[in-house]
Design brief:
Length: about 250
């Protein structure tokens, strides 16, 4: 049976660190709202279905995306990435067997990277595949935990990480591709047992390992493309990168 891809874009957050009344995903990169950039990139994958999870300023986000063939799901209360994805699952057609998940505040990601993520998931039949990146300064990011063989065994958020774990330079980017059956089975089992009291999507990695299911990991080639826009300085940097490299980003 031919594999069918669904994409879920998480775009419900307010983005309080942006110091702006405008929803985070509506801030422009080179004059275009970042959520539009993300959707344009995703559409290059020709997914069977694309769902945008909205919350803060939902009507405004939907308005800027009115020209795209999308579904919208409402996350009324923002309780973490796991809760956000759960809010959108009901919009995905039953025949979609793979679910690519990314955030609406990552406007510089390249279609080639998303395609590699999807292909690894499809080719291996893993429970999920994680997109990671190596950073010299991993502060603020969730760390990828591996065993002695290099296999992924978990992801720990920085606020929950030990001093040793915080020294790990391989970090989570927030991009995943899931086996649909695994996702349907396990997402309701996530619990907010962490420092933030939120439902972490990263807990599905541990769930897969506990079940003896495979967890794959690929690395982004360029840290710039997976940068999340969380503060005004990130927005300034993203605009500088686009001005320097063009869009889509062109790397040597």
């Amino acid at each position: 049976m031919e594999e069918k891809l669904a994409v879920v874009i998480l775009a419900a957050g307010k983005g309080t660190r942006m110091q702006s009344d405008l929803a985070k995903v509506l801030h422009p990169i080179s004059g275009i709202p970042m959520i539009v950039r993300v959707v344009e990139t995703v559409k290059n994958l020709n997914p069977e279905s694309c769902v945008v999870v909205v919350g803060h300023q939902a009507s405004e986000v939907q308005a800027v995306l009115a020209g795209f063939d999308l579904s919208f799901a409402l996350q009324e209360v923002q309780l973490g990435t796991g809760h956000a994805l759960h809010s959108g699952l009901g919009k995905i057609p039953a025949h979609c067997s793979q679910v690519l998940v990314l955030c609406g505040d990552t406007p510089l990601v390249r279609k080639e990277t998303l395609w590699r993520l999807y292909q690894r998931q499809k080719d291996t039949g893993a429970a999920l595949t994680v997109l990671a990146v190596h950073l010299a300064d991993p502060k603020g990011y969730g760390r990828i935990l591996s065993d002695s063989s290099g296999r992924v065994v978990g992801i720990v958020e920085e606020k929950d990480a030990s001093a040793e774990e915080r020294r790990i330079g391989l970090v989570n980017t927030g991009f995943y591709c899931f086996d649909r059956k695994f996702l349907d089975e396990k997402i309701c089992e996530i619990r907010p047992d962490n420092a933030q009291g939120e439902y972490y999507l990263t807990d599905l990695v541990a769930a897969a390992v506990m079940d003896g299911r495979g967890v794959e990991c690929i690395c982004a080639e360029f840290p710039e493309e997976v940068m999340g826009i969380n503060a005004p300085e990130n927005l300034e940097e993203a605009n500088r990168i686009v001005a320097d490299k063009g869009y889509p980003l062109q790397f040597p």
